[in-house]
Design goal:
Layout lengths: L1 H21 L5 E6 L4 E6 L3 E4 L7 H10 L7 E5 L5 H4 L2 H8 L2 E5 L3 H6 L10 H9 L12 E3 L3 E2 L7 E5 L8 E5 L3 E3 L5 E4 L4 E7 L7 H12 L5 E3 L6 E2 H8 L12
Parallel strand pairs: 3-4, 4-5, 5-6, 10-13
Antiparallel strand pairs: 1-2, 2-3, 7-8, 8-9, 9-10, 11-12, 13-14
Helix pairs in contact: 7-8
Amino acid sequence: MRHVLRYLLATLAAVHLVGAAAQPATPEVLTFRLSMSNVHAIKGSRTVLVDAGGKSDLPKLEADMAQAGIGWKDVAAVIVTHGHSDHAALAAEIRRRSGATLVLGSADLDMAGAGHNDDLKPTSFMATLLKQFAIDPTYEAFKPDRVITGEMRLEEWGIAGRVYPMPGHTPGSLVVELDDGRSFVGDMILGGWLGGAFLPQRPGEHYFHADRQRNLENIRALLRGPTRMFYLGHGGPVTRESVAAAFGDGASGAAPRAR
């Protein structure tokens, strides 16, 4: 009888260990703050970068990654949240150095293929000035390895989460949502002022949106879901509570906070 009990206990323990091993661990998230935007590293069994920085950001990105113990060959994928130059410019170079899979939303293919921003639609007077004097719209063109038209899971890189389209900021904007409630939303929300230089944990409306109303609806849709922390393309991260206060929860109809 004792032998039978030992066998059963050993079997149950083995099943538990196998099940635990099959589940991706909670990934570490690192944020590299570059000259114009953020690049986030999600460390699963392989590292996935969210966004690729601007044209001048390669030395800073490489140094920050090295300090975090991440080499180019550790990078399995780069998920480009949208095709603007401050987020997509280094995608082709990172693929050359790492062999990473480039992921992009289908409706931003034309931007990536041309290596040029779409026509930015300002949401404020400050944004109009930025468009005229502070933004280089060009970058090295690239063709993504995976084109997102619906949901794609991330377990192949040891990350419990998914990427899916949420057009609004651009027609092909993507959201990366981890199962633990952390979401990477690109330029859906702006953290702070002057690209996150001041008050980066204060969420507000970004300077440009292709479809301003749809972008607002996207934010409220995420607030109705499991997202508890928003990682941004500029500034941040910002909490669910601060986003709800700034944009309304979908029921109040509150307008976004002015920049």
